[in-house]
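Pantothenate synthetase, pasting as requested.
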Amino acid sequence: MKIIQSPAEMQSVAQAQRREGKTIGFVPTMGFLHEGHLSLMHSARARCDVLVASIFVNPTQFGPNEDLDAYPRDFERDEKLCREAGVDFLFYPTPENMYLDGHSIWVDEESLSGVLCGTSRPGHFRGVCTVVAKLLHIALPDFMVLGEKDAQQLRVLRRMVRDLNFPVEIVSGPTIREPDGLAKSSRNKYLRPEERAEAVCLFQGLEKAKELYSAGEREANVLKNSICEIIRKTSGSIDYVEIVDDETLKPVQTLNKPVLVALAVRFPGARLIDNAVLGK
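Structure tokens follow.
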């Protein structure tokens, strides 16, 4: 595995691989890797000639009061895990390399990004879209693998790739969970033991919604109330519990086509998200 920090060098390497007719798979991450990230790398490795992964804690997707400086980092551990996962090129740029002095161009999605996490994290998806657009131009992949845990991000980036005609296939990988159901996340390490025990409420709420849906319930408010009831028994505060159209992310009242059930809950140690799709 080769570690590359320069965007120009990474792009040159990718161009050389493509000239040789090789298929490039790409997994973008912010590091502090866990089994969820590794599952995406294994999925990509199985279907490409060259696997590129990136580790970049993107400053432009963090708000003024968010955890950029405290975001967990462990490059030596991440490097080892990438090698074991079969990564060929690990792109590890600095913020100064990715955002040159005077940077003034942004990619802003205006339909899917204004709801859910976009409401409480203004500017977040502008940062996400901009950095991923840059990474796609740098790594030049045939396909990119993204996790389904970040459901809104997955849909926003699919829309960006579609609307800006990126010649890239978006492949999704399932959410990887702890034995008790909590979705794997780099932010889980922020949780105190008592918060960690309570954090399973997100998964329990989704399971309750699935149970009600399987029993024939189709009213969104009934499902939402059942989820909120479970979360309110914990120290977590609800950022949002929403049931939205799986494609447009617009709220629905009655479930008569596929919907995304999306949750965000704030604990003193961390803000956690989770989701499930019903009706597919």
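Note for the archive: The radius of gyration is 19 Å.
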